[in-house]
């Protein structure tokens, strides 16, 4: 038995080494051969992060990593615009896993690409609303005859847990400041408050209007007509979609390819020279659009904000402050752009990062570019920047704080558990989740919440050059679109990362400059080898989701997240899954 087990382990190790070696050999070919008369095929069917952040000199970089970097996609499109071998782009069957502002950034890059005179065509067996928003930039949009186009307006859903708490005996004690700070509302009520409903409705309306404005310009259909199409489900079949004007033709994919061949002058018997975007990214990475000894440092802060080191999907003061310090001390770096894509999180970590930005501003200008969301703690770390850019579809604001503390005293009583506490001083036993929260402890926590909120307001007022009263009038936890945030003075300009970089260069009077991206992350393979527990945890999550279903798993994640929150939270007021 020992010999058999030993052989199995040896074979397992050899197999892993073989896979790694094969992957490294596959990565050895850094570029692909782009033939004349090629078509760049854009299929975005893996999750998109603002920044993947792999060290290109690391042979394990990108190994087992399934995510794509928005920065890489945008760069590849910009390179393709000037590549004489690329004649056009085919947007093919995207089921885009990106935020609305990320999608808008790709759309803007495609709009710029089209100005070169090269074609953009789009084909889909079906289109989600976000897929169509991207595809609508194309010269012509095609749909499968038995496909459909989802075009009905935006919506979202918020789960409420008050009854669940009462039935289970497990509840969340919540303390908050902010009329609109409704991250904790699901634990306090069974239905949505009018304040929360108002802000969600106005936010969705603003995002939808931004989408419709772009679609209207590309398809030459008025916003009013687009709303009428959505209200009447005027694209529910391929026939109706074509009649609505949102689709140019209803064809099968082989007919779509024949059309491209005809327009390119390619023989119908020949294959099209497709270059997948995933391959072209490797080729494009060798071409620098921005070059020069002087640098603009772009620091990516993406994910929830947690106290600690942080990583590729979590903002921690450790990794962000280290990146700010490196950029600040690098003599070649003349200005810094902080790309923020975060719903917020730890107020303490947010303030520590804010302080590091204040120190950095003393020697170099700092410009913020907001991604899909820069709310609450995400806005906290952005507020002090010299200049702030947001996309029209960016979700921002949410200036407010709250605390959540789990309590199982009712459950303990129901199952016959009694906890007794012993302490040396009056307040040495401050809280037990087995006992109801007492007034003294609640008062102390509320004092901390109020102090943090006032500090947050002060950071906003100081950074935006307004009074505390003015800051409070747009705060109270209220969320805004990028368009509304500019109107209210929470951001300076509407635009993406490129516009923020250009503004930073203008501040330091740079015409020629290179880009230095920070921080650098460990590859998934390195993290797997360092901590196999991480892979195990992911496997467990997949198993649980498969067993209980996606809807039940979403509820479980919401409860788990609430239980994990430690300290005062400056967090997005609710989880938004906009459809």
Summarize the structure in short.
By secondary structure, the chain is α/β, with parallel strands linked by helices. It contains 21 helices and 22 strands. Keywords: Hydrolase, Membrane, Protease, Serine protease.
Question: How would you portray this structure in words?
Answer:
Pfam families: Peptidase_S49. Belongs to the peptidase S49 family. It is a single chain. The chain is α/β, with parallel strands linked by helices and 579 residues long. Among the domains are: 32-152 and 233-285, 2-enoyl-CoA Hydratase, Chain A, domain 1 (Alpha-Beta Complex); 295-402 and 438-522 and 545-570, 2-enoyl-CoA Hydratase, Chain A, domain 1 (Alpha-Beta Complex), CATH 3.90.226. The chain contains 21 helices and 22 strands. Helix 13 links the parallel strand 15 and strand 16. Mean pLDDT is 88; it is low at 533-538.
Topology record:
Elements: H1 2-28, E1 38-42, E2 48-49, E3 68-69, H2 70-82, E4 86-92, H3 100-114, E5 119-124, H4 129-135, E6 140-143, H5 162-168, E7 171-177, H6 194-219, H7 223-231, H8 238-244, E8 249-250, H9 253-264, E9 273-276, H10 277-284, E10 295-302, E11 304-305, E12 314-315, H11 317-329, E13 333-342, E14 344-346, H12 347-361, E15 366-375, H13 377-382, E16 387-390, E17 395-397, E18 401-407, H14 409-415, H15 439-464, H16 468-473, E19 479-481, H17 482-488, E20 493-494, H18 497-507, E21 514-518, H19 524-530, H20 532-548, H21 550-564, E22 569-571
Parallel strand pairs: 1-4, 1-9, 2-3, 4-5, 5-6, 6-8, 10-13, 10-21, 11-12, 13-15, 15-16, 15-17, 16-20
Antiparallel strand pairs: 7-18, 14-22, 17-19
Helix pairs in contact: 2-3, 2-10, 3-4, 11-12, 19-20, 20-21
């Amino acid at each position: 038995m020992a010999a058999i087990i030993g052989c199995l382990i040896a074979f397992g190790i050899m197999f892993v080494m073989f896979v790694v070696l094969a992957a490294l050999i596959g990565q050895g070919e850094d570029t692909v051969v782009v033939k004349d008369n090629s078509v760049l095929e854009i299929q975005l069917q893996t999750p998109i992060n603002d920044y993947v952040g792999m060290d290109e000199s690391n042979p394990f970089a990108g190994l087992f990593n399934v995510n794509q970097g928005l920065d890489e996609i945008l760069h590849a499109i910009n390179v393709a615009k000037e590549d004489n071998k690329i004649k056009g782009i085919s947007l093919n069957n995207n089921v885009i896993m990106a935020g609305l502002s990320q999608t808008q950034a790709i759309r803007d890059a495609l709009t710029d690409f089209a100005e070169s005179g090269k074609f953009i065509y789009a084909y889909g067996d079906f289109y989600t609303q976000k897929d169509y928003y991207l595809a609508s930039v194309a010269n012509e949009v095609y749909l499968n005859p038995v496909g459909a186009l989802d075009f009905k307006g935006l919506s979202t859903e918020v789960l409420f847990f008050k009854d669940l708490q009462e039935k289970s005996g497990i509840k969340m004690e919540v303390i908050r400041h902010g009329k609109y700070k409704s991250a904790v509302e699901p634990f306090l009520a069974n239905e949505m408050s009018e304040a929360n409903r108002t802000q969600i409705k106005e936010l969705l309306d603003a995002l939808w209007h931004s989408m419709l404005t772009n679609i209207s310009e590309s398809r030459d259909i008025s916003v009013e007509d687009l709303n009428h199409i959505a209200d009447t489900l005027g694209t529910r079949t391929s026939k109706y979609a074509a009649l609505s004007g949102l689709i140019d033709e209803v064809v099968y994919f082989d007919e779509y390819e024949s059309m491209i061949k005809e327009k390119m002058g390619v023989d119908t018997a020949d294959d099209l020279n497709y270059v997948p975007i995933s391959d072209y990214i490797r080729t494009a990475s060798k071409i620098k659009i921005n070059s020069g000894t002087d640098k603009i440092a772009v620091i990516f802060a993406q994910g929830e904000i947690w106290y600690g080191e942080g990583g590729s999907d979590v903002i921690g003061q450790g990794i962000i402050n280290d990146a700010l310090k490196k950029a600040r001390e690098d003599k070649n770096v003349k200005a810094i752009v902080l790309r923020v894509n975060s719903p917020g999180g730890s107020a303490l970590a947010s303030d520590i990062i804010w302080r590091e930005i204040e120190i950095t501003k003393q020697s170099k200008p700092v410009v913020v570019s907001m991604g899909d969301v820069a709310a609450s703690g995400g806005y906290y770390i952005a507020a002090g920047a010299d200049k702030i850019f947001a996309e029209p579809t960016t979700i921002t604001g949410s200036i407010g704080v709250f605390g959540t503390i789990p309590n199982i005293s009712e459950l303990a009583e129901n199952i016959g558990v009694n906890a007794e506490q012993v302490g040396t001083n009056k307040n040495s036993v401050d809280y037990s989740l087995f006992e109801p929260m007492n007034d003294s402890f609640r008062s102390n926590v509320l004092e901390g919440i109020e102090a943090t909120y006032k500090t947050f307001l002060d950071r906003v007022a100081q950074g935006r050059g307004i009074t505390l009263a003015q800051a409070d009038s747009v705060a109270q936890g209220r969320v805004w679109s990028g368009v509304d945030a500019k109107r209210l003075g929470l951001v300076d300009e509407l635009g993406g990362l490129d516009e923020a970089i250009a503004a930073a260069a203008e501040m330091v009077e740079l015409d020629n400059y290179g880009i230095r991206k920070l921080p650098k992350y460990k590859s998934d393979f390195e993290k797997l080898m360092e901590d196999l527990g991480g892979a195990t945890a992911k496997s467990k999550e997949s198993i649980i989701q498969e067993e209980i279903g996606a809807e039940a798993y979403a509820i479980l994640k919401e409860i788990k997240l609430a239980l994990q929150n430690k300290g005062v939270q400056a967090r997005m007021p609710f989880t938004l899954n906009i459809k």
